[in-house]
Amino acid sequence: MPRSDEQSPFARDGPALEPVPISALAQYSYCPRRCALIHVEQTFDENLYTLRGRLFHERVHEIGEEVHEKLRIERGVSLWSERLGLIGKADVVEYHYGPSGDEIPYPVEYKVGPRKDEPHAPVQLCAQAMCLEEMTGKRVPRGAVYYHRSRRRREVVFDKALRARVRAATEAVRDLLVRRLVPPPPNDDRCRHCSLRESCLPRAAGEPERLAALRAAVYEAEEAEEEP
User: Cα–Cα distances in Å, from 84 out to 30, 115, 140, 160, 219?
Assistant: First the structure.
């Protein structure tokens, strides 16, 4: 983690910005605790679903370029924003040819599951668009989330409200990273299918008395092992 008096690639003047991974924004939107467990405590539990997702994205990220009549496609595109302090990678960026022959970037985020109207992937996708705007100097008005299981796209318009969510989530994640914060668990329906459920222990961490009892049991066991 850079010190406050160091210069980073994201700050030409003034204090350095802690770089925020673009993927962390969707994690934070879904659950701030999950985001912190992954990006602060480096906790990641592999299961069948995360393995499928990881292998799927590895295939999608195979570097390459396709040129078609109406668009050009790049895969695994590295992204950054000095202004926001974001870094990451786009699964796919389509460059649609405009009337004057200019290329209009159109990011596409791939998800392995079925199509659903959830609010988290659009935050990640919009962050990619804002990076592309800074990198290319061109307006990126919309993109799409592609759901592999459904073989369907969901187009996302990058309006002012969504862009504001990106900026707010970026600052919130940066605060977690700088201050090394791990928020309490929501202990609600989000926890049922979370891959970090065993590491997070949402019920125990959400019940202070139960958590205190578990900690006491751990300490007693350690003391018993130390006794001659």
Answer: 21, 29, 16, 16, 43
Q: What pLDDT, in 10s, does the model give residues 112-154? A: 878 888 999 999 999 999 999 999 999 999 999 999 888 899 9
- Evaluate if pTM is beyond 0.90: no
Q: Higher-confidence residue: 170 or 44?
A: 170
CA–CA distance, 200 with 203 (Å, rounded to integer): 9
Measure the CA angle with vertex 80, ends 134 and 137; round to 5°.
15
CATH of range 20-183; options 2.170.150.40, 3.90.320.10, 3.30.930.10, 1.20.140.10: 3.90.320.10
Please state at what angle helix 22-30 crosses helix 32-39, rounded to 10 degrees.
Answer: 140
